[in-house]
Protein 1
Amino acid sequence: MKPLLTLIFAGLLATFALAQEKDKKTEAPKPAAPKTEEVTIIMATSEGDIHLQLDSAGSPLTVKNFLSYVDDKFYDNTVFHRVIETFMIQGGGFSEKEGKLTQKTTKAPVKNESSKSAPNTRGTIAMARTSDPDSATSQFFINVTDNAGLNYPLNGGGYTTFGKVVKGLEVVDKIKVVETGFSNGMGDVPVKTVLIKSIKRAK
């Protein structure tokens, strides 16, 4: 009887194994995690090149908005128009001709994503805006120090970061110490033009 019971038990095990194998084959495949585009951009300035890795996962709408300006060559021959040594360097909205700053026409504002974006630490790039958290368009700034006061939910909703400097932080440090003054009705404007020659996707 023992051999017969052994055979029956072995048969049950085989049937169970086949059933498990069948279940595995009929299981619905798990959805793949959404892929995010990893983009590095090169910001060529009159003081040197700054390479930035954009954070499409943390700030997808902001990165898409920024790249739309990059691909349109909107930033070519604009300037860093606001520089504060202990805070940030800001650009992306003005061109300059014969010492006069002219604000460029922009696209529609982008929704604030600061609640999910990385904190405003040294070397991160973030969107500039007005007191309205959803008012950012083309202007950006690079944090030259850790600016915790700009993180969500502070400062009326926080400032969205969308990337970080991966090469050329010494260029940022060079720009942050340029002489500034009052010009065109604005303060903290570099006395000598700090030009953004171009911003392009890295090849």
Protein 2
Amino acid sequence: MIVIGAGAIGTSIAYQLAKGGATVMIFDRGQVGGQSTGASAGMVQINPDRTTPPATSALALESARLYPALAAELRERTGIDIGYRPGGLLHIALDDVDEPRLRAHRAWQVEHGVAVSWLDAAAVLDLEPQLNPAVRAALYYPDDHQLMPRLLGQALARAAVDRGAVLREGASIDRLATAGDRVVGVWLGGESIHAGEVVIANGAWASAWSEALRTPIPFDRCAGRWSRWRRPAPGFVTW
């Protein structure tokens, strides 16, 4: 298996594959966690709304449920503390327009199983005294957590390597190797490296493979995620 991209997604996939017994190679044009992962806020957040697809909400809830065990597992295996800590989120209302909107949002979330509390102004300022004293109310998400994203990527990469994965930093993939309608590996300089499956997890650079795959890879800038296309080439997976 080849994984292109050594951010949080790529290293997580590589670790789980290696743990499952697969032979894995990870390539990154820079360093582990050196791009969007290192710049991210590190929020493990459960905050769906009416526009969130049900499958995405279910994935977020399950991911959040698994994080404590993953953090403990990585610390035990690598000695790296990824900084997984409680980090409750406040969504504040500052005027009489925000307040009813937040109430309606909370009603929908409670109906869909989200742990969220309504706090009046006094309770909000007691919890976070540095907020604007004009705050009217807030939604409080006590189950949200935070972590150090770059440490997460480093811990996952080290754990994957400990399981036998090969990590190559500073290795920019030139193009995908294809045979007919299958992706069968990658080209790195003049070197062809073959694999049964190729996973692309290199974020902002993933669109470079659109031509080889004969399909666009659009980027949803608002959601900050790549869209999966309808008919991916066999032997190819993208996140």
Protein 3
Amino acid sequence: MWGYRKRIERDLPRWRESGWVTPEGETAIRGELESHSRSFEVAPILGILGAVLIGFAAMSFVAANWDEMPRLARLALILAGLISAYGIAGLLFERGHPAFAHAAILAGVAIFGAGIMLIAQMYHIDGHPPDAVLIWALGALLAGVLLKSNPALALAMLLIGLWSAWETSISGTVHWQFLLGWAAVTCTFLWHRWAPGLHLAAIVLSLWIISLGYLLLHGHGHAVVVGLGLLIAAIGLAGPIFANNLKQFSAPALGYGMTIAFAGLFAMQFVESPPLGGLILLALATLALVLSAIGFGLRTGRASALWLGYAGFSIEVLALYFKTVGTLLGSSLFFLASGLIVMALAAIAYRLHSRSRSRMEAVS
């Protein structure tokens, strides 16, 4: 919302000067933006942060090993905390304070996680530790679905990622069950039409895919990661061709796919040790990838694609420098290639800007 508001406020004066928006219309648009921005007041944000702190307090209380309390009293305390949190959430929903209600739900989910640890501690349950995180994630998912709480669903997604990472660290193999948990939470994000949740799901899935490079083929599966990233990017580009309602997912899919492919290419260059010829080919492929991202951003006006491309270019160039700086020939080739690439970028940017400016003048 913040980025959208900034773009509108930047474009409004130009639209007014071009006669596309009347002064009255501009005032109405600014009023509409102001009314929507009130949902981002400091109080609801502090409420969410307070819920997180309450969750940490509950878990720390459990970790203190409170042996002096009877077991029944401990269980009653956890149950009372759960009932109180969800009861307060219901009251807040009724009184028209949804942000604070979601904070109370988040606190209840955190207390539920603390309760799992408490029961395991009290009864000396020495099972598979990641299972406790999975149960916690399922509880957060259930709360998010039944109470329609997006923050609870976001916590469920983070817990699914933690569960999978823990399972992988123990087994040293790919944790395929992650996909089931990820899909379940992602479906609820789609059901709620919550864009931030879908971005969170994409980030968690991207990290899981990148990890495949270090697990498949005895730790040399980065080419698989590159292939998957390019496939996701291609789907993002082709999606709107087959279904117009997929257009809103096109740019994000392209961005995440290219990021995954970049991570795989980077690992193939600098985590593994390819020969000089292989390093040059991989570097050229990586630079072509980031230049494609920059070109897409310039052509479509997507600032996120531009920044991803610039960041990828900077990371690649610096990594190549430190990789080749040991030899004089390598350093000279590095600086020559970097200079040519930067000059090409400048030429592309100038031509695209000129075309965009000509189109704007033709319209006006």
Protein 4
Amino acid sequence: MSSEEEDFGRHLGFEEAPAHFESATQIARVTTEQWALGWMFCPNCGARRFSQFPNNSRVADFRCETCREEFELKSTKSRFGRKVVDGAYGAMRDRLAARNNPNFLLLKYDVARSSATDLMVIPKHFFTPEVVEERKPLAPAARRAGWIGCNIVLERIPEAGRIFLLKDRVAIPKLDVRAQWDRTLFLRRTSLEARGWLMEVMRAVEDVGQGRFSLDDVYASEDRLQRTYPDNRNVRPKIRQQLQVLRDQGFIEFLGRGRYSLTRVS
């Protein structure tokens, strides 16, 4: 393990927020952002050189100055749940196809210790319309009446798109993080529509729960896929097509006679 990785694993505590911040929400935002800026490494290039965007930027929170990848940070004192509350629904939908759509960082922290416990990154190529859920408009009596926010539905993102840098206070080796990151970069070369199908079939493969699986195992998710894409009347052929794409991209390996295996991350 490199000295940088050792630093990342050892320095989990947050610095004190400036005195003019009084609310718990403000303090959490400032301290978690400063910790991530100071100790996190970029999962795309491995560098630890970030700059911060202005507060309330509609683009992102910070950017890697080496590879220019952008990141949005969300922090929580609770466990990672099914959904994460994000910003305006319209803005998020507009960002999906943008080149500067940021990657999503989710940081869990311990309030009593004022320290990080878990840090997960979701690469931007895992954001599709199916992952972004529209919330109800704010009530007429609210300060921003009619404003519509959104949720990021984590359970719709395959495990391959939820990459831990820190888990249960233990730093994940940089080489492992980058190998997981590189494994799915092929999704960036696909359209949003094609990406959605690939992600759903990835989930179907992961739902089998085994390294080796059959075509029939993946067909078990047919009903879910039909509900997700009600206008598609050829779900099984579509599943086979997506498995072929995942095979061609090295995500899975075809073993013959309708049998496959997940490719190991090296």
